[in-house]
Amino acid sequence: MRYIFNLALRWEIPGIKANPCAGVPLLEFKDKKERYLSQEEAKRLYDAVCQSDNTMLEYIVPMLILTGVRKLELFYAKWEDFDLQRRIWRNATTKAGKARHVPLSDGALNLLSSIPRQKDCPWAFANPDTGKPYVTAFVPGTRHAPRLV
Fold first, then answer.
1. What is the largest CA-CA distance in the chain?
2. Check: CATH 1.10.443.10 for 51-149?
3. CB of 122 within 8 A of CB of 56?
């Protein structure tokens, strides 16, 4: 609500003279639970991904697990962003809009070396049909599901 009223003030919406939410403290979430895949769950996920019609999922899902980056950060990764000698990925597509450096483990480096490269395609995880970054990824066993499982 605070953001909505701030926008109304910024856009000078008639009738809005002040933000009634100003000064109201934001609710804090202290009981955030972190959950990680077990080894068995990760193996089941990888097996399902390998059976998918989307051949890039077998690279996308493990890289998400190995690096912890957001899906769109991975989709817009370019080959030039990876410094394999220094084992660093300079990720310019972060949610905060600021570049950050993601360390690359041995597993991530091995995975990157196994990805089939498309000629004249700058994207590391490009759609093989279009040569462009994915907007979403398909659920194993389906063709049009809207997101990863």
1. 60
2. yes
3. no
Amino acid letter at 78?
K
Q: Provide the token pair at 140.
A: 């194993």
- The tally of CA atoms less than 13 A away on the side-chain side of residue 7 is 4
DSSP secondary structure, 87-147, as one string:
TEEEE---TTSS-EEEE--HHHHHHHHHSPPPTT--BTTB-TTTSSB-SS-PPTT-SS-SS
Please tell me the number of Cα atoms within 13 Å of 26 on its side-chain side: 6
What's the CA gap between 98 and 62, in Å, rounded?
A: 24
Identity of residue 81: D
- What distance in Å separates the CA atoms of residue 111 and residue 103, rounded to the nearest whole number? 14
pTM metric for this prediction: 0.68
pLDDT in tens, 9-44: 999 999 999 999 988 988 887 777 888 888 899 888
What is the rounded CA–CA span in Å between residue 142 and residue 112? 25
